[in-house]
Design brief:
This protein has one domain (14-387): 3-Layer(aba) Sandwich (Beta-lactamase), CATH 3.40.710.10. Helices cover 29% and strands 13% of the residues. The protein contains eleven helices and 13 strands. It has helices at 38-49, 96-110, 137-141, 153-156, 160-169, 184-198, 202-211, 249-253, 267-278, 292-298, 369-387, and strands spanning 13-14, 20-21, 55-61, 66-73, 90-92, 219-221, 231-232, 236-237, 240-241, 263-265, 334-338, 342-347, 352-358. The chain has a five-stranded antiparallel beta sheet with strand order 4-3-13-12-11, sandwiched between helices. Strands 6-10-5-7 form a four-stranded mixed beta sheet. Strands 1-2 form a two-stranded antiparallel sheet. β1 (13-14) and β2 (20-21) form a beta hairpin. The protein is globular, with a radius of gyration of 20 Å. The relative contact order is 0.21.
Length: 393
Amino acid sequence: MTRLRVLPLLGVLALGLGLVLPSPLAARSAADDAPDFKAVDAAVRRGISRGVYPGAVVVIGRSDKLLHAERYGRLTWDSHSARPRSDSTLWDLASLTKVVAAGAAMRLIDQGLLDLDVPVRTYVSEFSGGMRDQVTVRMLLNHTSGLRPYIPFWRTASSRDEALTQLFADPLRRTPGSAAEYSDLNAILMGLVLERASGISLDSLLRREVLEPLAMHQTWFRPEASLWQRVAPSFKENDVPVFGVPSDQNAVVLGGISGHAGLFATGRDLARYAQAWLRGGLTSDGDTWVESATMQEFLTGSPNAGTRLLGWDTPDPEYEPPSVFGRLLSPLAYGHTGWSGTEMWIDPARDLFVVFLTNRSFDPRARNSFRALRDIRAAVSDAAARAVPVMAS
């Protein structure tokens, strides 16, 4: 289904159906003083009892405050392992790395260093020839480039350079801009665009443009060994938990630093990131992190992009339930998930965000843990929406 989706950020939100919503700061729940998140907690604990993941954290809040921060289970199935914490446990974000990298892209746009509508070859000259010349930066962010979803570089390449050479040579599967198909290759290539446009490594760029301005001091690529005791492991090797290494094997081949995966972060740090989006690009101190017009651009859909925004996904009204977004979020909601078991969504109509982090990929005991986690995510989303319903000011 082709949709043109526009998400106004602050002020009056008009859905185009005669519905007028208050601004996020005015949209408040009568239950804000003591919201009941028992249903959220119960849904997360069901995931542990069913063997989907050993541990989890949830952080729920508004643009200006946290409403709920809870921890569940343990970092592994060992009953003696540490319990997770929302402020210090580091989770393998997997594809949530993509949405954090989108923040760096916005900053470069504001600095005049990045243009969404020029060919990718403007920044990455190796990606050129044939239909590749038609692929723009925007198409990488909304997954309409025509690149295939995945290449197992961990099998086909022995180094970062070899993997990138294979990426540059891989033929497109469809005409650029014609349709959306989610692809890790888009985000890997986007990471290279950011490096070339800024002149520094992706790690340094995210630190300078996203993590430091938003006080996300507990977010890292390749966390040092001194931090491993705080990491929720996301896979095992020879039946031993592995700490500080991403579960995404392509990210490992790429050196642990990539635009598609590799970041580790706490629930509280991702909450800070979500709040910056709910505030329309402002920091907690009220300073401009990203221009509101730039953020609006990233939250505006385009023809042929389906549910995809720039860096984010949105609820699909035609998707067979259960959706990870649940059934109760507004049409303005957007978010993303990660294969390791991570999720974050933001609903500006409710002035509400949910960060739900697990290590599903570590050693799931449930059959079809991915489907089971989807059910849990839907239940958590709906429970959070019921706990803090929107009420006009």
